[in-house]
Write a structure and sequence with these properties.
By secondary structure, this protein is mainly alpha-helical.
């Protein structure tokens, strides 16, 4: 096939391009932009004083603080597990490797509500460890530990899933070279591995943080819905909406929307930096023409 024929085969009529673009923009407007705008309009429907009072309500402040605390507690575990799992899968061959990859994807396949019920059966009053925990006055279910545990389970694949293909593509030649030159394991990780995976790691952390702050199903089962104590921001929105407190519900939802927008902006910046570094690397590897 000639160059002209290839160009014709890969080109679309102008009307088709505009139609597809219109459909895509219409979808984004009606299913993303319009609902997001509606959240802020409803939150401010009763005026700024009512919006401010809804956010400064003690229960709202407690829900916001608990949401941020859970995310802060979950992310270090996600980072450690993600790096360790990705390193093991990308750098070593061992029996059970496929099983480990399958288990990492398990939270994507299981409903969050089912996850909450499973941990309730394990740590609840009638669960496997319930009597022992009650005898030692250790409270997990309907308290902060259960919320952290289920959120950790829901979010732990994100960092690993971003790092595994990245580290597999990079191979292990640089690490082996560093070891052969006398670097210790920590020096190899800090000076070779970490710089190579830093943007992928940050990308996975952003995704895990977004899921941790917005998790509803699993947290709803194990939290107990105790006002001012175990209600995260999504649960607080549900309670207010069920009580017909539309201003309070949408005000709390607007905080989640703002957190989502911040997460989206951070995600876009990381993607831009990844593309930029990839282009610079490709340019440096391209031989100059005489």
């Amino acid at each position: 096939m000639t160059t002209t024929g290839i160009r014709r085969a890969n080109s679309e009529p102008g009307w088709l391009r505009y139609l597809l673009l219109t459909l895509a923009l219409g979808f984004l407007f009606f299913f993303l932009a319009l609902p997001l705008l509606a959240v802020f309009v409803e939150a401010l429907a009763a005026g700024w004083p009512a919006y401010r009072d809804a956010l400064f309500d003690p229960e709202a402040r407690s829900a916001i603080g608990l949401t941020l605390l859970v995310a802060l507690c979950v992310l270090p575990g996600n980072i450690l597990f993600g790096i360790a799992a990705a390193w093991a899968i990308a750098k070593f061959d061992f029996r059970g490797k496929s099983l480990l990859i399958t288990l990492i994807d398990l939270p994507f396949a299981v409903s969050p509500v089912v996850v909450g019920l499973v941990f309730l059966l394990i740590f609840g009053a009638q669960g496997i460890f319930g009597p022992w925990l009650a005898a030692h006055e250790i409270k997990i279910v309907f308290a902060l530990p259960a919320i952290i545990i289920v959120t950790m389970f829901i979010t732990f694949p994100f960092v690993a899933r971003e790092l595994i293909p990245l580290m597999q593509a990079q191979g292990k030649d640089e690490e082996e070279a560093a070891i052969s030159l006398g670097a210790s394991g920590w020096q190899m990780f800090r000076r070779v591995t970490l710089p190579n995976i830093k943007w992928g790691l940050l990308y996975g952390v952003i995704l895990a943080n977004a899921r941790a702050m917005g998790e509803f199903g699993a947290v709803s089962v194990v939290s107990g819905h105790i006002r001012g104590e175990t209600n995260t921001l999504p649960l607080h929105v549900e309670i207010l909406y069920n009580e017909y407190n539309a201003v309070g519900a949408f005000a709390a939802a607007s905080v989640l929307a703002l957190l989502a927008l911040v997460t989206l902006a951070a995600k876009s910046i990381v993607e831009w930096r990844i593309r930029r570094e990839t282009q610079m690397l490709a340019a440096s590897l391209t031989p100059e023409r005489p």
